[in-house]
Amino acid sequence: MQAKKPDTKHQMKGVLCGCVVASAFGVFLLCLLSFIMSTGRIPIWSVKAIGIIVGCIMASVAAFFCARYSKKNGFFLGMLCAAIIFLIAFLSSLAVGEFPGFWAAIKLFSMLICGCVFGSIGVNVKKSAK
Fold it and tell me: CA-to-CA distance for 123 and 42, rounded, in angstroms?
């Protein structure tokens, strides 16, 4: 009897799928928010809080889709997706000259928590019976 091979390739495909879906959703969400901000309905001083909220939404979407695709290890894969999404946002902010401060740490931990929670939810959601 052969031992079952670990399906890390399938899990990494899930991470890639989740991060791509979350990035596309994040771009759409940021475009929508920038349009709303240009109309003057959202004040400029709320940009940091909006960044944290958008980051948490993106981490949640990435973790959920990754967990639904891989069907196991939702907690850890969700954390990995959230870390990748944070790293992309962090490097983007560094590229435009933003100085990382206390908000970056808050964003990291809140995104990791959202990734873990929604990764666990994504694994445990059952398909509806038709």
Answer: 36
For 48-95, write each residue's pLDDT tens digit: 888 899 999 999 999 999 999 988 888 999 999 999 999 999 998 899
Q: Rounded to an integer, what is the distance from CA 59 to the centroid of its chain?
A: 2
Can you spell out the DSSP letters for 92-121?
A: HHHHTTPPP-HHHHHHHHHHHHHHHHHHHH
**How many helices (DSSP H) and strands (DSSP E) are in the chain?**
4, 0
Burial of 54 (0-12, 13-18, 19+ CB in 10 A): middle
d(CA 58, CA 52): 10
- Burial class of residue 29, CB neighbours in 10 A (0-12, 13-18, 19+): middle
